[in-house]
Amino acid sequence: MELEITSDSQGDVCTVVIKGELDVYSAPRLKEELVARLDSGCNQLVLNMEGVGFVDSSGLGVLVSALRRARERDGGVRIICTKENILKIFRITGLDKVFPIFSDGEEAQRF
Question: How many other CB atoms are found less than 10 A from the CB of residue 51?
């Protein structure tokens, strides 16, 4: 399944909706989008991963890279995800301790 990426910004907060598989083939496209959002002044990224069915190490690397870039701008990256298979990957890699993970957008926006 091809990766679909849409985004919306409100001030310095950008919500990026990701749908599809986040793998070695699609990760560069996501990286390009996240870098563009950060360069446009969005210091806070909210990544909605509810539509993601699969994530590999390349995809995780893009998320970590975006977090590093956001922190350089005194920002951060928040994840919206309730899919157990994706949450399991975050837990196994320890990234659940690095990224704030929320079950819905309202909760993520308030953080």
Answer: 15
